[in-house]
């Protein structure tokens, strides 16, 4: 939001206070989820327990979301927003008030009165958040501060808390489109109520510079895997892997999804659907090859697996494939045995799509969600691959041993 130079709500009391804090907690959860899905949000530092005036640098509309996700809900933070922009139309006004706890501050006269209306709320322990630069600065530099925020803090007798925000200019550039980026919020040490605009500006600039200089360490292996998964080769590779597994290849497509979707979580759905398509097409081919008497190699399968599948097909027909996601028997065994038993193509296509879709897509999306949540730890992607490979090897060994 274009910040106010300088705030009206009154200090919450009783039921009103509880409602304000509940709304603040819900807003914090909402924006934390949104920013997590768009790259992640990190916070360092905390607000003091008393009411305070928060001053921050301003380069993007996403700054408001970053602060609402990072600041303590118990302060029920209210965000000062430019009256001539965010309150110029009914829909903007509703969005600003409900999703950002915004209040109007005039930039062309009367703004000081808008701010001073929040003195009692500050004394009651709330936080008022202001962007003293008065507007967004897309160059990444911190401009000069207007004095309204400091006058408000001095009148209320509460500290001024400097905050540096980085990453929002990449997440949502001024006049640009939303894209993936990690947002970092660093909360500094409180300044006294008598701090000057220059002192507050210098504190915010120092925090902003430190936060921008921080780099999120990454794994070279993750970057290479993500580059392939995000390229045009990603979906064909997932399709080919699953297609081959449905015929003979011993490694299930979920292993590939565990590798690729964690490295490139935003491609999880595309890769999962590609793997599903490969499984279904491969399963159809396996059905017809087996019906024609062709026996393809099937490593890591056992006679007991084939006997179990034959019994299930005899009792349930094509619907027997619904057991495959849970019993550990490879999909290629179901495809081959279905062909030998004369299962119809249409029935097999419907049941196999349902069974494989339930497992492949859900597993791929779960890995993608895990990749998003663990984005800040992506430097450990190599360790993750070792654990994934070890767990897969152990699990496969136990499954094969159990079906001997």
Overview of the molecule:
This protein has two domains: 15-213, no CATH class; 220-402, no CATH class. The protein contains 18 helices and seven strands. Residues 5-13 have low confidence and may be disordered. A seven-stranded mixed beta sheet has the order 1-7-6-2-5-3-4, sandwiched between helices. The protein is 56% helix and 8% strand. By secondary structure, it is α/β, with parallel strands linked by helices.
Strand fraction equals 5-15%
Number of helices: 18
Give helix and strand order, one letter per element, not per position: HEEHEHHEHHEHEHEHHHHHHHHHH
How many independent structural domains?
2
Per DSSP E runs of 2 or more residues, the count of β-strands stands at 7
Distance between the termini: 64 Å
Radius of gyration: 29 Å
User: What is the helix fraction of residues, given as a range?
Assistant: 55-70%
Low-confidence stretches: 5-13
Main sheet specs: 7 strands, mixed
- The structure class reads alpha/beta
């Amino acid at each position: 939001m274009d910040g106010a130079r300088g705030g009206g709500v009154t200090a919450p009391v009783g039921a009103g206070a509880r409602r304000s804090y509940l709304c603040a907690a819900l807003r914090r959860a909402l924006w934390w989820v949104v920013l997590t899905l768009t790259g992640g949000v990190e916070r360092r530092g905390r607000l003091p327990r008393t009411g305070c005036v928060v001053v921050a640098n301003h380069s993007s509309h996403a700054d408001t979301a970053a602060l609402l996700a990072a600041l303590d809900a118990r302060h029920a933070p209210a965000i000062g927003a430019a009256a001539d922009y965010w309150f110029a139309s009914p829909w903007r006004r509703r969005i600003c008030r409900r999703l950002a706890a915004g209040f109007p501050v005039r930039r062309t006269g009367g703004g000081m009165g808008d701010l001073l209306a929040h003195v009692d709320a500050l004394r009651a322990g709330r936080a008022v958040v202001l962007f003293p630069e008065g507007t967004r600065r897309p160059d990444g530099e911190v401009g000069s501060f207007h004095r309204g925020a400091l006058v408000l803090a001095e009148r209320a007798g509460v500290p001024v808390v400097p905050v540096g925000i980085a990453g929002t200019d990449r997440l949502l550039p001024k006049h640009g489109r939303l894209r993936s980026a990690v947002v970092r919020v660093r909360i500094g040490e409180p300044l006294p109520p008598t701090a000057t605009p220059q002192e507050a500006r210098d504190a915010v600039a120092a925090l902003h510079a430190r936060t921008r200089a921080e780099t999120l360490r990454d794994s070279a292996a993750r970057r290479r895997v993500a580059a392939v998964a995000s390229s045009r080769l990603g979906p064909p590779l997932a399709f080919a892997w699953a297609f081959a597994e449905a015929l003979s290849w011993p490694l299930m497509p979920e292993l590939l999804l565990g590798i690729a979707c964690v490295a490139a979580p935003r491609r999880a759905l595309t890769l999962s659907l590609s793997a599903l398509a490969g499984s279904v097409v491969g399963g159809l081919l396996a059905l017809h090859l087996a019906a024609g008497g062709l026996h393809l190699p099937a490593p890591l399968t056992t006679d007991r697996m084939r006997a179990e599948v034959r019994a299930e097909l005899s009792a349930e027909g094509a619907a027997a494939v619904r057991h495959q996601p849970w019993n550990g028997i490879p999909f290629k065994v179901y495809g081959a045995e279905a062909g030998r038993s004369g299962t119809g193509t249409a029935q097999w296509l419907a049941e196999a799509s349902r069974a494989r879709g339930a497992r492949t897509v859900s597993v791929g999306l779960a890995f993608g969600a895990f990749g998003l949540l663990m984005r800040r730890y992506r430097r450990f992607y190599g360790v993750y691959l070792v654990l994934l490979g070890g767990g897969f090897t152990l699990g496969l060994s136990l499954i094969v041993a159990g079906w001997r």
